[in-house]
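lol forgot to send this yesterday, sorry. struct tokens for the thing we talked abt
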């Protein structure tokens, strides 16, 4: 298996890099570790059917092809953990190099990357199952790199805003690929270590915060994420539940 990022397919403009990656898997032109990178996306997709906007030429929009050889469908959230940790690590290193505290970077379940309370990166992981195993995964990553202005409602930030300087997209992409290869190897050889590293970086862990559970506001605190990717949360009465993304999301006020 070639290391992630050995082959980077650069596009000036696409609808969505995840869509281009899906096409490449379909026609057999893309292999494990290949990366589709676009300077501009006109129909970038986010989780839960939302749109994802990246400023042309300023921010990173890419999709990585992964072909796990024996990953059980029940364990597929490990992929989300690996990619979240990889992007977390890249952002934390940029902050460290700029003399800023890397502890400000956290993973907001399931796999947003925040600096303090502002989102700097999001991921869209699209897995294709074959029976009980994951056959292919398209890992779409949107990382705000050089955008400087965000609508207040977005609660977003960028590497430029956090470090005070602009960063070259090819270098950021190389770092993302290298970090993803590291986490991919950890997932294959030591998934328990991957899970505990992810857990250690969870945003708002142990702090009571607003959630929406089954459509209703609910105060609880996150304790961990289980093997199925469900957030393990404890309510004010001490009741502990593991809830998936179909039942639980963070509320607007944290
Ligand atoms: C989210 O936070 O909602 C996920 C955002 C994922 C955006 C990336 S940008 C590259 C790739 N192509 C897409 O269309 N989406 C992902």
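and heres what i got for the seq, position by position
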């Amino acid at each position: 298996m070639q290391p992630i990022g050995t082959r980077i397919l650069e596009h000036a403009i696409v609808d969505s890099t995840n869509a281009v990656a899906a096409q490449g898997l379909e026609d057999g032109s893309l292999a494990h570790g290949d990366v589709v990178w676009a300077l501009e996306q006109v129909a970038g997709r986010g989780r839960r059917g939302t749109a994802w906007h990246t400023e042309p030429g300023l921010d990173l929009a890419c999709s990585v092809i992964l072909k796990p050889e024996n990953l059980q469908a029940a364990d597929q959230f490990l992929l989300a953990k690996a990619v979240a940790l990889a992007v977390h690590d890249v952002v934390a290193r940029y902050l460290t190099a700029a003399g800023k505290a890397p502890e400000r970077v956290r993973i907001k379940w399931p796999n947003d990357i925040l600096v303090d309370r502002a989102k700097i990166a999001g991921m869209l992981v699209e897995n294709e199952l074959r029976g009980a195993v994951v056959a292919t995964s398209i890992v779409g990553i949107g990382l705000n790199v050089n955008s400087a202005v965000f609508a207040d409602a977005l609660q977003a930030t960028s590497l430029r805003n956090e470090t005070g300087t602009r960063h070259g997209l090819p270098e950021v992409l190389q770092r993302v690929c290298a970090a993803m290869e590291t986490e991919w190897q950890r997932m294959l050889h030591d998934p328990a270590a991957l899970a505990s590293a992810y857990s250690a970086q969870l945003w708002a862990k142990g702090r009571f915060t607003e959630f929406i559970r089954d459509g209703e506001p609910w105060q609880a605190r996150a304790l961990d994420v289980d093997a199925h990717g469900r957030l393990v949360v404890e309510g004010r009465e001490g009741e502990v539940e593991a809830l998936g993304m179909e039942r639980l999301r963070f509320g607007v006020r944290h």
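The mean pLDDT is 96. anyway ping me if u want another try
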